[in-house]
């Protein structure tokens, strides 16, 4: 497999990566990637190992090493060790601030006739009947009330 990205670390980057490999409390994957970068370094201070040697010594896959090299050239070696942050959440939240405030207001109000207190399912049904939300789970109601510190009891 042909290398598309060559890696030449500066002495600062090299010292930072070496310090990372010696830390006690750090993610194992980050340490492995830092070690791989140090072995792949083609600068005068580096070892410049071939990819098969690095793969065998560290135990990572060739695709991981290729992706790591690419990320180093694109964003830098230290940033390549970090996980990429999601730009958007996996899905939109069911309740925004306004609807959450209405939920708390509803939970603090008197319980409906025939019930001693509000239950999570009753609150969820009432939120839908009042057309505050299209649909909502009792679990979402629970999490929202827990986050606000409200108590149903």
* Low-confidence blocks of residues: none
- How far apart, in Å, are the first and last alpha carbons? 65 Å
SS element count, helices? 8
- Major beta-sheet overview: none
CA-based gyration radius: 27 Å
Report the portion of residues in β strands. under 5%
Percent range of helical residues: 40-55%
Q: What count of structural domains?
A: 2
What's the β-strand tally? 0
Mean pLDDT: 91
What is the string of helix and strand elements?
HHHHHHHH
Class by helix and strand content? mainly alpha
Shape category: rod-shaped
Written description of the protein model:
The protein is mostly helical and about 150 residues long. It has 2 domains: about 10-80; about 95-150. The protein is about 55% helix and about 0% strand. It contains 8 helices and no strands. The chain has helices at about 10-20, 30-40, 50-60, 60-75, 75-80, 95-110, 120-130, 140-150. Helix 7 (about 120-130) packs across helix 8. The longest helix is centred in the middle third of the chain and has 14 residues, at about 60-75.
Characteristics:
mainly alpha, 2 domains
Topology summary:
Blueprint: H1 11-22, H2 28-40, H3 51-58, H4 62-75, H5 77-80, H6 97-108, H7 120-129, H8 138-148
């Amino acid at each position: 497999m042909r290398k598309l990205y060559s890696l030449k670390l500066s002495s600062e980057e090299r010292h930072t990566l070496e310090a990372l490999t010696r830390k006690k409390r750090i993610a194992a994957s980050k340490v492995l990637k830092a070690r791989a970068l140090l072995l792949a370094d083609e600068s005068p201070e580096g070892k410049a190992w071939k990819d098969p040697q690095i793969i065998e010594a560290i135990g990572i896959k060739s695709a991981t090493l290729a992706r790591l090299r690419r990320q180093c050239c694109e964003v830098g070696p230290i940033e390549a060790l970090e996980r990429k942050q999601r730009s958007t959440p996996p899905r939109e939240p069911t309740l925004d601030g306004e609807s959450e405030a209405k939920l708390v207001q509803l939970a603090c109000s008197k319980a409906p006739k025939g019930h001693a207190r509000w239950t999570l399912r009753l609150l969820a049904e009432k939120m839908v009947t009042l057309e505050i939300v299209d649909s909502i789970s009792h679990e979402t109601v629970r999490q929202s009330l827990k986050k606000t510190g409200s108590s149903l009891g």
